[in-house]
Amino acid sequence: MLEDPSFEGLLSSKTISISSNFSEFNKAKEKIQKLLKEVFILKSNVNIVWKSGLKGNGFLETEFLDTKIAIPAEFGGSGNGASPKEILVASAAACYTSVLVSMIESRYLPVVDLTVNSEGINSDDEFKIIHYPHIVLSGKATEKQIQAANRILSLADKGCTVGNLLKKAGIKIEIQGNISSTN
């Protein structure tokens, strides 16, 4: 059967087609792997410029953040700027809030307002962050939507990469949420 020229021609064209498709597959695979690295490998650049020693202050700058920082007064600094703990709590709050918003939108919940207040509490034996999310749903929200809103309060915590890193470092994170609706 291999001696049949039409079969050999068919086999040859299929081999070229498979090789060509395999080459295209490998190119696509490489592009996907590159994109995945860009998506899942978070690289953040932070620049800090400090002036005037312990009592001075600095400026923290990222691509989208520009803030004044300082050593807290209780540690001998000026206290005239955000402290490292404030920035840490803000980072955890921003992460939690962004995951919460994403979950709200993916479930098409009729949210009228969303606020998240967060606090960091430092005691002798632990550092703890408490998020206080408040979701206001429209008066037309169904019972099913209210239940979904309640569930995502804790689900957003599980999806927050910053919070998960902090938990691995022994920081406790609590969620004390509230759901209400307009009437």
Automatic annotation (TrEMBL):
Gene3D superfamilies to which the protein is assigned, alphabetical: 3.30.300.20
Against PANTHER family, the record matches this protein to:
OSMC_OHR FAMILY PROTEIN, OSMOTICALLY INDUCIBLE FAMILY PROTEIN
The name of this protein is YmaD like protein
Which species is listed as the source? Bacillus mojavensis
Q: What is the lineage of its organism?
A: Bacteria, Bacillati, Bacillota, Bacilli, Bacillales
